[in-house]
């Protein structure tokens, strides 16, 4: 089975549409979404509608921004621009979008013999940025392979016996074959707000039969996404960071 894996779309309709247009030319049977459909960007209703209408959608995991925007949980450690965006998003949500966000799956969720989650297998708010956080996440993971989001940084952590390694994808295309006997935590990067210094939208495709992960980057029209953020009165920083992918 080939899975298209999207994460951290963050109400960026321009980025999502560019990714959906690009993947029309790629082979996959199911779509997995790792959360944070809303927050930061100016198109929360449109992005949720697009995602929920995807034909091959298998599961949408709840992200921390989805939880707080829908009013179904606490806003743990939100910084000021994120909080401003969440308050704005709450006001914008249509009843249908709010209902969809409220019904999202709380991770982790098993798919075949792997799992998907938002932050970490044991805490949707935890950022796996360092080997230390990866280590505790491996301890709680029920599967040898977990796809996660939340950090907005495409990367791979591997654990072989007690040897843990982490590395950034760091380029626009990477095809990686998972090694037998090694455990993995894999982040596809963010569609709507990349933070690895590359402004292009990020996603991956996992082939469970051949055990390969392919990472892709897609350019999209950043300027209109920025203009919509500014027009909505959202913090300027949220528009500026899209240009640099920071
Ligand atoms: Fe996020």
The radius of gyration is: 17 Å
Structural class: alpha/beta
Helix content: 25-40%
CATH hierarchy class name: Alpha Beta
Mean pLDDT: 96
Q: Biggest sheet: strands, sense, closure?
A: 6 strands, mixed
Largest beta sheet: what is the strand line-up? 3-2-1-11-12-9
Q: Report the total helices.
A: 8
CATH topology: Purple Acid Phosphatase, chain A, domain 2
- The SSE string, one letter per element, is EHEHEHHHEEHEEEEEEEHH
CATH superfamily: Metallo-dependent phosphatases
So what's the overall shape?
A: globular
- What is the second-level CATH architecture? 4-Layer Sandwich
Describe this structure as you would to a colleague:
The chain is α/β, with parallel strands linked by helices and 246 residues long. The chain has one domain: Metallo-dependent phosphatases (Purple Acid Phosphatase, chain A, domain 2, 4-Layer Sandwich). 31% of the residues lie in helices and 24% in strands. It is built from 8 helices and 12 strands. It has helices at 13-23, 44-52, 64-69, 80-92, 95-102, 131-140, 222-231, 236-244, and strands spanning 2-6, 30-33, 57-60, 109-111, 114-116, 145-147, 155-160, 163-168, 173-177, 183-187, 201-207, 212-218. The chain has a 6-stranded mixed beta sheet with strand order 3-2-1-11-12-9. Strands 4-5-6-10-7-8 form a 6-stranded mixed beta sheet, covered by helices on one side. β1, α1 and β2 (30-33) form a beta-alpha-beta unit. α2 (44-52) packs across α5 (95-102) and α7 packs antiparallel against α8 (236-244). The chain starts with a strand and ends with a helix. The model has no long low-confidence stretch (mean pLDDT 96). The structure holds fe (ii) ion.
């Amino acid at each position: 089975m080939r899975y298209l894996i999207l994460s951290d779309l963050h109400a960026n309709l321009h980025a999502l549409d560019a990714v959906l247009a690009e993947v029309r030319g790629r082979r996959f049977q199911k779509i997995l979404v790792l959360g944070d459909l809303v927050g930061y960007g100016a198109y929360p209703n449109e992005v949720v509608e697009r995602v929920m209408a995807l034909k091959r959608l298998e599961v949408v995991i709840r992200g921390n921004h989805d939880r707080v925007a829908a009013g179904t949980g606490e806003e743990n450690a939100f910084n000021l621009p994120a909080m401003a965006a969440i308050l704005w998003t709450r006001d914008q949500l249509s009843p249908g979008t709010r209902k969809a966000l409220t019904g999202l799956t709380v991770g982790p969720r098993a798919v075949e013999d792997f799992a998907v989650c938002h932050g970490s297998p044991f805490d949707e708010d935890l950022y796996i940025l360092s080997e230390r956080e990866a280590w505790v996440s491996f301890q709680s993971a029920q599967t040898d392979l977990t796809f996660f989001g939340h950090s907005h940084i495409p990367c791979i952590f591997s654990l072989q016996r007690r040897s843990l390694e982490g590395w950034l994808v760091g380029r626009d295309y990477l095809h990686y074959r998972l090694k037998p006997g090694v455990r993995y935590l894999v982040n596809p990067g963010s569609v709507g707000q990349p933070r690895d210094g590359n402004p292009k939208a990020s996603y991956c495709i996992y082939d469970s039969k051949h055990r390969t992960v392919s990472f892709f980057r897609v350019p999209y029209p950043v300027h209109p996404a920025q203009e919509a953020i500014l027009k909505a009165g959202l913090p300027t920083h949220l528009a500026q960071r899209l240009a640099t992918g920071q």
